[in-house]
Design brief:
Oligomer: heterodimer
Strand content of chain A: 15-25%
Shape of chain B: elongated
Number of helices of chain B: 1
Number of helices of chain A: 17
Distance between the termini of chain B: 41 Å
Strand order of the largest sheet of chain A: 14-13-10-11-12-15-22-20
Order of helices and strands of chain B: EEEEEEEEHEEEEEEEE
Strand order of the largest sheet of chain B: 1-2-3-4-5-6-7-8
Shape of chain A: globular
Largest interface: A-B, 59 and 68 residues
Structural class of chain B: mainly beta
Largest sheet of chain B: 8 strands, antiparallel, barrel
Helix content of chain A: 25-40%
Strand content of chain B: over 45%
Largest sheet of chain A: 8 strands, antiparallel
Helix content of chain B: under 10%
Structural class of chain A: alpha+beta
Chain lengths: 500, 163
């Protein structure tokens, strides 16, 4: 039995894992870098151990320091969260060799699925639909263009170890192919230390639909339905929902079966995600398998009622799946928005600084997984995601209305955020109709415009004038401000207040 | 108290506000229209205002001279317009600030150096992207406020130039 878990991660996901561990009566251990000494995750666990250093490489990616911390505190298991070491097979191996349970799939599975060429071959052999692809190393240089023509343009140049859009190029014409391969190889070599490339057929305006799967040591595999993750920026998801409006019951059943086949063929254990590209004609293709708990797992929890972290712990300590395919249901509709410290109007440039004001949304059907609080310092060293806002309602229109309301209540000041931008997407008529694909943001640039409907530059200018007791001509006002009621937070004294 | 005028820049728009009364209560003219206002509560970074008969909650903070305001569900960035905002480049000294948070990679000038317009002053790195901070006009380097390896916030003064 697992009694004490070290979470080798930070931010909202570390906090979220601690919450379930506490519900299960399992002791919690945080690790933290120097900039995270006062972070929310550091103060949430029963114990916190310092990983001396600042950068991710010195701290959350440092296998030796993390294993030392685990030995020091007597943890019997490590949860890697997502990102950092979560898909690092050497880390999973090192945990096992150190006598620790790695809460995730077997190291061998991580290794096989982490290689995009290898994973494609495995899936092809298992009868899971994959896109026509070609390993460049297998082709003589003078044959490349002919073979590329056979796949057909446009096509994608992709890195075998790729991820997050790095080492990937879209090529629309044969004349651009050689240059694209060269440049993608350079990028992949730098980012992953692996310059192997393959060519893959490119599907225009696809949807990104993934299936949550789960396996145990006895060989049971279950799926927990899909997540539609088509709204992306820089090849990263920012809005996810379930169910997907694009799936009919028949298509859902076929995709779910393919996902279960994919997991079964590698003897998958613990939580995983099978990602598919869904074309507008309803054909779908295996994209990759994420061998970890996914960022967007909360929406699956909201529609199924299952706690995926609890299931991960159960499976990791050798228990059978508690998920029974006969009783699993998708109830209602859930949406998640990723809240980032970034400026959408400046190509999503990340920002850092102190969170001066933090007022999270609350109320029926609202779930917030947050790694920050008022006063938090958001540093430049890690991913700029601050929180995940998820809502649940009985149907999609009600969930959209709820997400709009929750985003409208969410106040983060002190650094740039994407809250208003996310609301612009949520209320866009095409999004409301469910007409989405991975190119949504570039085909609907109006979501980047400021001055959304209902805003008032006049009222804002009035309030700013009252706050800044100095006039626009540069002469300071003679009168000092005399606040009417000076309190740190007047809302608690005003009683119930409703938005007009 | 006499009327006071404020001019704000919000993105591409400019809004002129003329206030009469006290900072807590009075009337305001914006464009062709008049409104009554009353501050009902005010905290360190928050408050409640009534404009005509509508109550609006607000939160705010300031970075340099820009006001970041959340008002009734919407975010606003307001820059004071007018002489103080517009005359920076004609002042005898000019502060060159970091355009984003990041790390200083290289300082390409030394104190006392003459620089010409567009000459690189500082090279910064943020989120693995490099950017070059250049001299906006001819001048000389009065002071250098950073060194390679420094981690700086957006708006931090890196170099001071003088005409």
């Amino acid at each position: 039995m697992i009694r004490k878990v070290l979470v080798a991660n930070r931010g909202e996901i570390a906090v979220r894992i601690f919450q379930t561990l506490k519900e299960m009566g399992i002791a919690t251990v945080a690790v933290y870098s120097d900039p995270d000494a006062d972070a929310v995750h550091t103060i949430t666990a029963d114990e916190a151990h310092r990983l001396e250093g600042t950068t991710a490489a010195e701290t959350y990616l440092n296998i030796k320091k993390i294993l030392q911390a685990a030995a020091r505190c007597g943890a019997d298991a490590i949860h890697p969260g997502y990102g950092f070491l979560s898909e690092n097979a050497s880390f999973a191996d090192a945990c096992e060799q150190g006598g620790l349970i790695f809460i995730g799939p077997k190291a061998e599975t991580i290794r096989r699925m982490g290689d995009k060429i290898e994973s494609k071959r495995i899936m092809q052999a298992a009868g899971v639909p994959t896109l026509p692809a070609l390993l460049i190393a297998d082709v003589a240089a003078q044959e490349l263009n002919k073979k590329a023509d056979a796949i057909g343009f446009p096509l994608l140049v992709k890195a075998a170890s790729g991820g997050g859009g790095k080492g990937m190029r879209l090529v629309r014409d044969a004349s651009e192919l050689a240059l694209a391969i060269e440049s993608a190889q350079r990028e992949a070599e730098k980012a992953f230390g692996d310059a192997r490339m393959f060519l893959e057929k490119y599907i225009e305006n696809p949807r990104h639909v993934e299936f949550q799967i789960f396996g145990d040591r006895m060989g049971h595999v279950a799926h927990l339905f899909e997540r539609e993750c088509s709204i992306q920026r820089r090849h990263q998801k920012i809005i996810e929902e379930t169910p997907s409006v694009a799936l009919t019951p028949a298509l859902r059943a076929r995709m779910a079966q393919a996902a279960v086949d994919a997991a079964s063929t590698v003897g998958y254990q613990n939580a995983g995600t099978v990602e598919f590209i869904l074309a507008s004609d309803g054909s779908f293709y295996f994209l990759e398998m994420n061998t970890r708990l996914q960022v967007e797992h909360p929406i699956t929890e909201l529609v199924t009622g299952h706690d995926l972290v609890r299931e991960q712990i159960r499976v990791a300590q050798g228990e059978p799946l508690s998920l029974d395919p006969a009783t699993l249901r998708q109830t209602g509709h859930a949406i998640e928005c990723r809240i980032y410290a970034e400026d959408p109007s400046q190509q999503f440039r990340p920002d850092s600084g102190r969170v001066v004001v933090y007022e999270p949304p609350r109320g029926p059907g609202v779930r917030l997984d947050s790694g920050i609080r008022q006063g938090s310092e958001v540093s430049i060293y890690y991913d700029p995601m601050l929180a995940k806002l998820a809502v649940w309602a009985l149907d999609r229109p009600a969930a959209l209305a709820r997400m709009r309301r929750a985003l409208s209540e969410f106040v983060i000041l002190g650094l740039a955020n994407n809250i208003e931008f996310l609301r612009n997407v949520i209320i866009h008529p095409a999004f409301e109709r469910g007409e989405i694909n991975t190119e949504f943001l570039s085909t609907h640039p109006e979501v980047f415009n400021g001055q959304p409907e209902g805003s008032s530059a006049e009222a804002a200018a009035l309030v700013a004038s009252l706050l800044i007791q100095e006039d626009g001509t540069g002469r300071g006002s003679a009168q000092k401000p005399k606040p009417v009621a000076v309190t740190r937070d007047p809302w608690h004294e005003l009683g119930p207040w409703s938005n007009a | 108290m006499s009327a006071r005028t404020f001019v704000w820049t919000l993105g591409p728009n400019s809004v002129t506000v003329t206030l009469s009364g006290t900072p807590e209560q009075g009337t305001v003219r914006i464009g062709e229209r008049n409104y009554r206002f009353r501050i009902l509560a005010r905290g360190t970074n928050s408050g409640l205002i009534e404009i005509n008969d509508r109550r609006l909650r607000f939160y705010w903070t300031q970075r340099q001279r820009t006001v970041y305001l959340w008002l009734n569900g919407f975010y606003y960035e307001l820059m004071p317009a007018g002489p103080r905002g517009a005359t920076v480049s004609s002042e005898p000294t000019q502060q060159m600030t970091a355009p984003m948070p990041g790390t200083v990679v290289r300082v390409a000038v030394a104190k006392g150096d003459r620089v010409v317009m567009n000459q690189p002053l500082v090279i910064m790195e943020s989120m693995k992207m490099e950017s070059v901070l250049r001299a906006p006009k001819d001048g000389s380097v009065a002071e250098i406020k950073c060194k390679p390896g420094d981690v700086v916030e957006m708006g931090s003064v890196l170099v001071i130039l003088e005409a």
